Amino acid sequence: MRIIVTIKQVPETSNVKMDKETGTMIREGVVSVINPLDLYAIEAGIEIKELHGGHVTVCTMGPPSAAKALKEAIAMGCDEGVLVSDKKFAGADTWATSYTLGAAIKELGPFDLILAGERATDGDTGQVGPGLAAWLGLPLATYVSKICSLENNQLTVERLVEDGYQVLQLPMPALLTVVKEISNPRLPTLRGKKKARASQLRVLSARDLEVQESHLGLKGSPTKVVKIEYPKVTRGGKMVKASGEEGLHTAVSALFAFLAEKELI
Amino acid sequence: MSYVWTIAEQNKGRLREVSFELLCRGRKLADKMNTKLCSVLLGSNVADDILQELISRGADEVYFIDDPRLASFIVETHSNALSDLIKKYKPHTILAAATSSGRTMMPYVAIQVSTGLTADCTELDIEEGTNYLLQTRPAIGGNIMATIKTPDHSPQMATVRPKSSRPLPLDPTRRGKIVRLPLPDGLYDPRVREVGFRMSHEDSASIEEADIVVAGGKGMKKSDNFAMLRTMARHLGGVVGGTRDAVDRGWLTYPQQIGLSGKTISPKLYVAAGVSGSIQHLAGIKTSEYIVAINQDPEANIFQVADFGIVGNLFEVVPLINARLEAHNKGGK
Ligand SMILES: Cc1cc2nc3c(=O)[nH]c(=O)nc-3n(C[C@H](O)[C@H](O)[C@H](O)COP(=O)(O)OP(=O)(O)OC[C@H]3O[C@@H](n4cnc5c(N)ncnc54)[C@H](O)[C@@H]3O)c2cc1C
Ligand SMILES: Nc1ncnc2c1ncn2[C@@H]1O[C@H](COP(=O)(O)O)[C@@H](O)[C@H]1O
Questions:
Q1: Which residues face A227 on adjacent strands?
Q2: Which residue has the higher pLDDT, A228 or A179?
Q3: Residues A102-106: contacts with CB within 8 Å, 24+ apart?
């Protein structure tokens, strides 16, 4: 069983700066972490390996510093890390990212399962997983909250949708994007950290992949950021104190006046 | 001039509300470009009088690919069908809902037809002169608004969050064409099959599709106390959700979690009780139209984003609100 988990390194803080010229993020000076939603995919991959045997490869496309995210994933229990990195990949939107990741995964050889996070907390699109499945022509299930069974190369999974859980059966190799409900990410162990430090990452650059240059990075991205604004987050709404019997009634009356004025009741 | 399309959604022969919300967005764009608005539905067994509502709510034409194999959402076959239609009719713009199916199918289709896609747009406009779709969306937990366009590719594609726009009023005098199409040969992909469906219990009825969401956090203290939020939700015609802390404690289920690692919602009214307003929670509620917060700590972050805040003990405030709502509802509107 060969499992590939795609992860993204994202800025830790919520105060990220943007380059107004290119509309991309300024990464200098910001602490980076594994996209928190990718931890569920990593954990799911490790659990499948523990249950069915196999090998987990964790793969990210990003700058050389993204190696740190791969090492963290190895410390959790992944077996091998692949860094897809080249100046030519920089500034890629979800179309170009999924194209490049697709080419990298083809380079890695046969696999049974790809796991991706539901979305990355910086770009927040959730488009790379489905895009990757489309490039690779893989059966896809998104928002997977549970793997019910995995046998004879058939997966049965539950996916979280608006009014419940859709149960899907799909043949492997397949791609799943997963939600928080699927697993409880473990912390790296001391032994894991040691192994991570010693591990050699595989680095793939544009030269190593069968790609068309015109499809890469900012230039290859169909979408272009044309404007960035920092919206005011505070709304400066009304605030009332509900203290004491009378204060309580006045406050609730004021709320009802507000709800009525906005036609909410 | 090529058309503006919106992707309608169906469930067991009925149209989902979001189909009409998209038409409201699409109507403005189509009018601005002086072109037609077309609603595309992939599904099975939807009656003409139901499809007519798409016309009454803004569409000029309806394309309905009607096939039992499209009855439930399976991304491969749905995407093949939509991509085929795009290649045949070459629309200018396509708007879809940022639902579990829209967010799955559209990125798949974007690869198949080789164009860009912008997720979760809150504003859409047409650029003067070029007619490019200007797609504005929040990113980085709502801390920035980015405007994006897709200059060298077509169609222009975006997804829009449910509840972020209101359907146009029903106009029964509107007339339009309804076209039923078969699923062309070779587009059905048999690999993935739906083998079951587990309905969520009523309590967690889709918080993304609700007009009103009443949320509780750690300040609710225990599971039983959520009964009063359920009562409030029932009086208001809404549903109950909550913070990650509330979910992690088992007071609510994961589908009810709002925020960075849960759902992003845009209801008309969001009420928070005993919620501090962490950055991660706010990421999921910033696009709500109105925010009401009840918290005993006047410094709580939630008050920063609230349109109306009550500083007080929720165990006193909420029961009083409920009593007033009950009286209000009994008294007739
Ligand atoms: C990667 C990551 C992802 C996360 N994703 C999410 C997410 O998706 N959603 C989410 O919600 N959180 C998320 N969190 C967690 C988030 O950081 C906060 O811990 C969480 O939102 C706090 O929940 P809370 O407001 O219920 O609890 P608290 O922060 O403990 O707030 C409780 C509030 O209740 C008030 N209160 C207490 N008693 C009363 C009373 N009697 N009357 C009135 N008010 C009272 C208190 O004043 C306090 O403000 C995430 C965190 C991380 C690191
Ligand atoms: N640069 C990247 N390298 C590897 N995986 C990625 C990258 N970007 C996104 N992904 C994967 O795609 C998922 C969705 O990301 P996004 O579409 O950016 O919200 C993430 O959770 C990752 O699993």
A1: B147
A2: A179
A3: A102/A132, A102/A135, A102/A136, A103/A209, A103/A210, A103/A211, A104/A59, A104/A61, A104/A204, A104/A209, A105/A4, A105/A59, A105/A132, A105/A136, A106/A136, A106/A209, A106/A210
Q: What is the CATH number of the domain that holds B280?
A: 3.40.50.1220
Question: Quick one: fold of A2-215?
Answer: Rossmann fold (3.40.50)
ipTM comes to 0.91
Domain housing B254: 202-329
Least Cα separation, residue A201 to chain B (angstroms): 29
B166-175 pLDDT tens trace: 899 999 999 9
Residues with CB under 6 A from ligand 1: A 36; B 217-219, 243-246, 257-262, 274-276, 278, 280-281, 284, 294-297, 300, 313-315
Regions in chain B scoring below 50 on pLDDT = 333
Contact A131 B317 (CB under 8 A): no
- B15/B116 same-domain check: yes
Q: Which of B125, B151, B181 is the last residue of a domain?
A: B181
* pLDDT tens digits, one per residue of A182-220: 999 999 999 999 999 999 999 999 999 999 999 999 999
Using an 8 Å CB-CB cutoff, list chain A residues near B260. Answer: 36, 121
Is B48 within the bounds of a domain? yes
Shared domain for B54 and B171, answered yes or no, is yes
Map out the domains of chain A as residue ranges.
Answer: 2-215, 235-265
Full-model pTM: 0.91
State how many domains chain B has.
2
